[in-house]
Amino acid sequence: MKRIYLDYASLTPIDPRVIREMKKYSSSKFANPSSLYKEGVAAKKALAEGRQKVADYINSHSDEIIFTAGGTEANSLAIEGVIRAAVHSGVKSPHIIISSIEHSSIIEVANKLEKFGCEGIKCEVTRLSVDKNGVISLDELKKSIKANTVLVSIMMVNNEIGSVQPIKEIAKIVRNARKSFGTDLNYPLLHTDAAQALFEDINMDNLGVDLLTLDGGKVYGPRGIGVLYVKREVLSNKLIEPIILGGGQEFGLRSGTENIPAIMGFGKALELANTNSRINTNTTDNESARLGEFRSIFIEGLMQIRPEIIVNGNLNSGPTQSPHILNISIPGIDNEFFLFQLDAKGVTCSTKSSCLRDEEDSYVLKSMSADSKTSLRFSFGRFTKVRDIKKTLRVISKLLSK
Known about the structure:
- By secondary structure, the protein is an alpha/beta fold.
- 40% of the residues lie in helices and 12% in strands.
- It is built from 13 helices and 12 strands.
- The longest helix has 21 residues.
């Protein structure tokens, strides 16, 4: 049985071209880039090349790219690193603003800082609500920013429902707040988790964020490699501190020997994404449009099977909805049992974020007043075919008719 993979939001397959790139740097240029001999110099050159490829993808400077062991670590560095720096600079009771549907790597760090503080200094956390489409209220954000607000962290694309937040508008609100509190203040900073934002326009010249997270496992790259973009001014003003100490690699922000094969694979994956996946208004046959069409076909087919099926999030792909994620609720089913039935028929999907513990319900769907007990997430990608969508619909129809 040929299996159908519809869980790209959880993890993307590694593109064969990325694997070939990684093999080159696993067998030949394998040395420690901090070494002074010939092989180390070659590895250091490769590190610089990989860093530049990531910088080119988001239109930033290469010295603003900090390599980590994945998106989770990048998010932790963004949140805890900024809070540590704020506490050490004398900020009393630093305030963090997040949304109620952030990735668990943001939620859990914020929870820890709220409960235990940072070096004895209590932290305050505000969690913004979302509407039925999973989008925050800009008015609520404005009202939530205070004089002690150090960081706002709002993810660009939600990993469970695919909602897209208006990051440029959020950035404008944060900048205006920073000005209103005095020109000598550097806060609040703005961070966005862009791990799922493969189909969004990420351009640091006009996005307006101070920190941004990327993850290799979400862009057809290797696992265990991520990036935190840190704006030059944040680095120069020492507004972020490391959370992993050691040899001082990655401009002093992330110690540990750099993983050159993974870095070069990540760079190659983003290079491919620039040509294959990004929004291009001059091209109708692009990946975003292709996956958006699949999503529409899937929704239309589901409604024909059972009209009471609910789409969790925006019905149509567009400015507030990523084309590659579809979250639905099927009234009357047990979603875990239904997932196993689909699995037995060769179709993979998920019931919630794979980063949640087995016993946890989806807090994302709860935030939207959706039923997480009957929900399934289907997510599409580079190797998805229209025949996969149609076969999955036939399987769902047979299972629901029993």
